[in-house]
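Sample pair:
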Amino acid sequence: MLKRFLLNALSSFVGAWLAFILVIVCSIMFVFAMIGNMAINMASSSTDGQVKSRSVLVIDLDGPIEERMRPSEPSIMAVLQGNLSEPSTLDVISQAIREAAVNDDIVAIYLKCGVPQASGATFNAIRTELKNFKKKSEGKKKIIAYADSYTQGSYFVASQADKIYMNPQGELNLQGLMSQNFFLKDFFDKVGIEFQVVKVGTYKSAVEPMILNDMSEPARAQLDTLLNVMWQYMRAGIAEGRKKVTEAGIDSLINKNHISMAKATEAVKAGLIDSLVYERAIDPMFADISGREVKKLNYVKPSVLAAQTPWGADYKSKKQIAVLFASGEIADGNNNEINYEKLVPVITELADDKNVKGLVLRVDSPGGSVFGSDQIGEALDYFQSKGKPLAVSMGGTAASGGYWISAKADRIFADPMTITGSIGIFGLIPNFKGTLDKIGVHVAEVSTNPGANFINPFKPLDAEQLDVMQKMVERGYDQFVSRVAEGRKMPKEKVKCIAEGRVWNAITAKKIGLVDELGLLQAAIDWTAAKAGIKDNFDLAAYPNEEPTVWNMIQMGTTSMKALQEAVNRKNQDVISQWIIEKILARKPIQTRMVDININY
């Protein structure tokens, strides 16, 4: 298998270059197609899709929902998985809903539910925005939800709709929360890779998938608590929106009635769905609401409506509140996630910019590099040294390194479904000697000092070296705990009691002092503006201020990219093995990172 893996790695490299060439060709074709479409649009007098009187906002919950659109580079894994469409973004959806509430041209919202991929906090943020929409419009503007089948996440959002419809042949996948992860010890044994671990924190379980075949009891216990708190919140939210069902009733429908496998009529009988209709029945409903004929209905996308009041584009304002997005793993060097080399200069510039009166750091990160986390943290300290307020708004995850960079903010806001904490550090050192033995390769070395080749990837660490690594990790942990203690104004001993690498739901995190307030990004913005003394007179600017790439535009043309997907789609074990190894080994040995928690929303 290993020989096939190595050969496939080479073939994948060649395939990547071929795919790159195909991307260039497809890019050129796409540009010409865009030019053609622009010409057609310019020649047409139709204004369909533009905001005009008696329009309906359509929120299509399908596919990935990211924090914010960011420049993309060609991704072979995205092609392999078929993720070629442009993702929806929470910032645009939220702004569109807020605008719809006050825009007289919008009469209703059509919540079109597919199979969305998002965190619990993202689903809750959209649901909360819809709840606020109903309050602001005083019930005069309706929300109608429809799906062929509902996922748990999409139904959680749809529970705020005035009416919920489903296809007669559809399913309501309401099952409770479950997290599943892969444990790879046997796999690494087969390919001859051994991991040595140094860590601080009983619950710091990010290393477990590489060294165990099942999760430890502490890891299982923290997940059990985490999921139960999050499920209680989701269950209460559904019951709040659907008056005919109670929280206990929801659990009964799941556990006894197996509602996700039952006939669609059972969901109606239980009060979870209002009626079973085919999708073609939805247009006449909006025709009645808008007073238009079905053929003249005007549906508007979130991006079109959000553009009516451009959010975060006031870069020249002299009364500016900056919103800085930090999404993804914290890594060193050039990458498309949180790269401290790019983020630190932005923070420094904002600190020195007299027009910037305050900063909201929007964090959605499981952590990553200790070094990168520290660099970002120090830059934020510099920002605060200028006497400007700093708030943190936590998204789906703000844990480990994500909490490191958040800890000293003046105020921390989190969504009730945010996962945070995981205050701990680990070292994961791979040893490839077994791999070389399997293919008959041997390594000889000559050195002037015992530590000249420390860390040696082809030789296990001895007891003395492991002790050195352990002390380094402990120093990093003490630095982390001290930062949290200073930022949260807690004794270090109290921080240690809630640290140990344990992850917390934001509801519990607020009780133990890791979070100040439960609320959306807008709440953090309003607080920062008030703290800066410009409560009713400020403008927003979103950072990093980046332009979309050609690949972003190509992603919109899913059909034109189908040939590329088919060209590189090799569904075999060696490709999967290569991806797993590359993903894990690309990380530095010392990390402050949360374990992967994959929850079935």
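Residues 80 and 569 are 5 Å apart (CA to CA).
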